[in-house]
Amino acid sequence: MSDNGAPDRDPQALLRLCHLVSPALPVGAYAYSQGLEYAVHAGWVHDEASTLDWLQGISSASVGTLDLPIVLRLHRAWTRSDIADVRHWNAQLIAARETSELRAQELHLGRALARVLVELELSEAGEWIEPAAAFATLFSLAAVRWHIDARDAMSGYLWAWSENQVLAAVKLVPLGQSAGQRLLHRLTAAMPGLIEHGLTLSDAAIGVSTPSQALASALHESQYSRLFRS
Known about the structure:
Blueprint: H1 13-21, H2 36-41, H3 48-80, H4 83-96, H5 100-119, H6 135-145, H7 150-172, H8 177-200, H9 211-220
């Protein structure tokens, strides 16, 4: 216990979270735009303001209502060593990916993170290299084993998604680096509210409502010229 009566916090936890959300983590997230590339191609996203609208919409109606509450449930399941529950929420997240590209991305990132975690001496991640595993499943495993609490894990997951999408937008729209930083600043301001909302959602309320992203992702599959895999 600390001097003020609060539970002692693992001094490595924040540093491990920084490692887990680093763009240098070799999982290949930089190769995916999650439909943003087609949205730019179609003119739906064309400047800083429309990029912010696009990213805020997806973060609030997809990441915030699907990924974050499932990260919370996976964190709880790993904490209890309830593998049946881990498998349940892993399958739920994969099934919620609405296009073949989004599902392929999820499985690629999950498998890649499993391999990275094995290299980082988290051997139980090796059991998830071959089965269909969502990125959030391995992310939550690492968070629990590295003593990162659930709220911080949700924050880190949302930050990593936001940073990757902003980096994609900087290349695609294109935007300058300063515009990218303004976007991240605006997205960060909304994160606490998204996390609080994710903490309160019931199982039945978990889901996604971003038809434009689903359409963009589906149309991206046949887009002639592409920089990204989704």
